[in-house]
Specification:
By secondary structure, the chain is mostly helical. The protein has one domain. Helices cover about 75% and strands about 0% of the residues. It contains 2 helices and no strands. The protein is elongated, with a radius of gyration of 29 Å.
Length: about 80
């Protein structure tokens, strides 16, 4: 076989392989989008509304001040090494 024939066969094989992978990934993305749409329509629960008030950020400044003090102490101890 000549080199040009081998190159043409290699190019055809490459295009066939890349095309099949592209088609497979496109079908996979479409299928995942369809499943996500179905899950959103079946389970219309909005979890942001059902969060407990305990998870809310505290409004008092004392806890924030304590956290800042702890972080500052840790940074000072690290830098002192």
């Amino acid at each position: 076989m000549q080199v040009s024939n081998l190159l043409m066969e290699g190019a055809n094989l490459m295009l066939l392989g890349m095309g099949s992978v592209f088609v497979f990934l496109t079908i996979l993305v479409l299928a995942m989008s369809a499943v996500a749409y179905l899950v959103r329509t079946i389970f219309k629960d909005d979890t942001r509304e059902t969060l407990s008030p305990q998870l809310a950020v505290p409004q008092s400044g004392t806890e924030g001040d304590e956290i800042i003090a702890v972080i500052s102490a840790a940074i000072n101890r690290y830098r002192a090494k």
